[in-house]
């Protein structure tokens, strides 16, 4: 089971720009093992739009999802920088420190910071 969890992409975000993101806990139905993943896109007007896309995809694979919170990511691919900030009105603020650690696994050559700033 853990191998299947590990095969999930830890990060799926837009390649550039400022956009909403959510931190999602994924686990097997009834299982104890879990993995937290980051999903974000400018196409989402609200944070729940991201979850409404992610949840059915994960259910097809036999996983359950829970949104742990949200915020925004400012992704500057030219300068290799990311800033994680803000919150979701519906889901509350994600633990940005956790989000940054997940992002750093994929964007190893980036400078990634976070703050509780709203903008």
From TrEMBL:
<protein>
    <recommendedName>
        <fullName>14 kDa phosphohistidine phosphatase</fullName>
        <ecNumber>3.9.1.3</ecNumber>
    </recommendedName>
</protein>
<dbReference type="Pfam" id="PF05005">
    <property type="entry name" value="Ocnus"/>
</dbReference>
<dbReference type="InterPro" id="IPR007702">
    <property type="entry name" value="Janus"/>
</dbReference>
<comment type="similarity">
    <text>Belongs to the janus family.</text>
</comment>
<dbReference type="GO" id="GO:0005829">
    <property type="term" value="C:cytosol"/>
</dbReference>
<dbReference type="InterPro" id="IPR038596">
    <property type="entry name" value="Janus_sf"/>
</dbReference>
<feature type="active site" description="Proton acceptor">
    <location>
        <position position="47"/>
    </location>
</feature>
<comment type="function">
    <text>Exhibits phosphohistidine phosphatase activity.</text>
</comment>
<feature type="binding site">
    <location>
        <position position="20"/>
    </location>
    <ligand>
        <name>substrate</name>
    </ligand>
</feature>
<dbReference type="GO" id="GO:0101006">
    <property type="term" value="F:protein histidine phosphatase activity"/>
</dbReference>
């Amino acid at each position: 089971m853990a191998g299947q969890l590990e095969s999930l992409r830890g990060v799926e975000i837009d390649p550039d720009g400022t956009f909403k993101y959510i931190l999602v806990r994924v686990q097997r139905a009834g299982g104890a093992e879990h993995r937290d993943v980051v999903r974000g896109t400018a196409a989402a007007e609200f944070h729940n739009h991201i979850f409404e896309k992610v949840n059915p995809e994960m259910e097809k694979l036999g996983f359950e999802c829970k949104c742990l919170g949200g915020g925004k990511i400012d992704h500057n691919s030219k300068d290799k920088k990311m800033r994680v900030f803000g919150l979701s009105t519906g889901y509350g603020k994600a633990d940005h420190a956790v989000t940054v650690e997940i992002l750093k696994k994929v964007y190893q050559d980036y400078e990634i910071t976070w703050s509780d700033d709203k903008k």
